[in-house]
Amino acid sequence: MKNFLGLILARGGSKRIPRKNIKEFLDKPLIAWSIEAGLKSGIFDRIVLSTDDEEIASVGKNWGAEVPFMRPSKLASDTATSDDAIRHAIQWLRNKEKYNPEWVFLFEPTAPAKQPFHFCDVAKIIQGNNNFDSVVGISEFPDQYTHVMQIKLDNNNFISRAWDNELLKNMPKSSREIPKSYLLNPQVYAFKAENLFKGNGSMWGDSTYGYLMDNKYNIDIDTPDDWKVAEAKMKKILDDLNKE
Asked: Which CDD domains match (predicted)?
């Protein structure tokens, strides 16, 4: 049985939406949605919050996350990477508490649509297959947004396809000719902890399994406009779940 750590990165210095991680999203702080989903899934040994902010730490604890350390300020700056913050959390837990998770699930607070069953699905995939280093949620791209339809302009404003420089006359003539393509869905990021300490240090490792998710769960909040759209989408998700 593999052991799973749920890890939340939530620094205090968000710029586009000040204090977004603890801002009320529908009826609870944004960060609470991820914590609750993780707790209800029942698959995690621990759910740990990494933050540099005392208020965020307090809110996280109130909703059930552990905050065994405060993240160093140098790992919470605008230039710090998520990989560095994750690596710090894993090293701290290993060195200070002798806790060595095999797999880490990264909970993105700005992706609040994750549900307990998503975590359970991915746990089953990991338990049944060891041929990959990470798992990421994916959702199907609508045909009109697929990479095949992307274009670019040259210096004279002439158009060609962005991905292979072909002319528009070679565009697919019907949606049936467009190959399916997918985009990352940030509700689910899971990876072997050891990925951070070998090779190029990327959490993804050498091979990543795609966990297909309904596109309605693809919510990612980055701007105030995103926030408004996300609340409307989340209300619909909750209504649908309550009907099941």
From this structure: CMP-NeuAc_Synthase
Residue 1 confidence (pLDDT): 57
| 38 touches 119 (CB < 8 A) | yes
pLDDT at 143 over 70: no
- Each domain of the chain, given as residue ranges in start order, spans 4-139+182-243, 142-179
- Go through the chain and tell me how many residues it has: 244
Please give the CATH topology (third level) of the domain spanning 4-139+182-243: Spore Coat Polysaccharide Biosynthesis Protein SpsA; Chain A (3.90.550)
Distance CA 47, CA 111 (A): 16
Question: Which two three-digit tokens encode residue 53?
Answer: 């902010």
Percentage with pLDDT > 90 across the chain: 75
Exposure of 104 by Cβ count < 10 A (0-12 exposed, 13-18 middle, 19+ buried)?
A: buried
pLDDT score recorded for residue 165: 78
Residue 111: alpha-carbon gap to chain centroid: 6
